[in-house]
Amino acid sequence: MVEQLKVLIAGESWVTTCTHIKGFDVFVNSNYEEGVEWLKKGLEENGVAVDYLPNHVAARKFPTTMEELRNYDVVILSDIGANTLLLHPDTFTKSIPTPNRLGLLKDYVASGGGLCMIGGYLTFQGIEAKGAWRGTQVEEILPVNLLPGDDRVEVPESFSPRIVGSTHPVLRGIPQKWPIFLGYNRLIPKPEAVVLAEHNEDPFIAVMQYAGGRTMAFASDCSPHWGPPGFTGWKYYPTFWAQAVKWLAGRD
Q: Is there a domain that residue 1 lies in?
């Protein structure tokens, strides 16, 4: 019997505040939101066990030991900045040394784990380069190099990626015609990477073997706004992510 795949997703959450000015009077309200529902549901529908750490929880609860990380076949980082994992609250607020979780992720992949980074405003470099993954140990193991500044490419008129690796296990049985997207992070493929999809010669999906493990970069978002309902509700959305996780875990 094949053991069930287990995935850890970190990120895909945010808190917004809104200031209302109505003549003389002003008030502020806040709202907490998550963008993980489509990805989590799609994986679970395909028999993958998922643990989810929203950003504010990941800061403290993301694994700090290899033993904890090895409970998962694949780690997915989506819309989560490097500082959230690098700066544990005990280090930032109490000056207590804590493990470098970016270096831990590198060792995890090297020893056979799978890692996927999904694009957005706080992954890769993101808005104003505040994702801050460039120059980290995680960039070393990704199939792409990162730009020094803001790497967002906003495409309000929409685009569909061009599939160039349809025979790869990640894209097996998935049509060449994809739904539209509204933006992505501009990335630079490494020489050893395999690009599976692209837009304007920028990699849209890239994969790579790193030591004993595997990594993948998905340049756009798994949820709005870059990933519109046509993508999140696409018939092949769950299949794509399930096959990606399977490949990353070495189960292809």
A: no
Domain count, the chain: 1
Number of separate helices (H) and strands (E) present in the chain: 9, 14
Range of the domain at 69: 6-248
CATH of the domain at 229: 3.40.50.880
Query: Residue 115 falls within a domain, yes or no?
Result: yes
Please state, in angstroms and rounded to a whole number, the distance separating the CA atoms of residues 99 and 153. Answer: 34
Q: SS3 for 175?
A: coil
How far is Cα 250 from Cα 111, in angstroms, rounded to an integer? 12
pLDDT band at 252 (very low <50, low <70, confident <90, very high): confident
User: Residues 69-93: what's their mean pLDDT?
Assistant: 98
Distances (CA, A) of 209 to 7, 85, 194, 195, 212: 18, 23, 9, 12, 7
Q: Is 0.85 surpassed by the pTM of this model? A: yes
Residue 144: phi, psi to the nearest 5? -135, 155
Strands (E), 12-166: 13-22, 25-34, 49-53, 74-78, 114-118, 144-146, 152-159, 162-163
pLDDT surpasses 80 at 162: yes
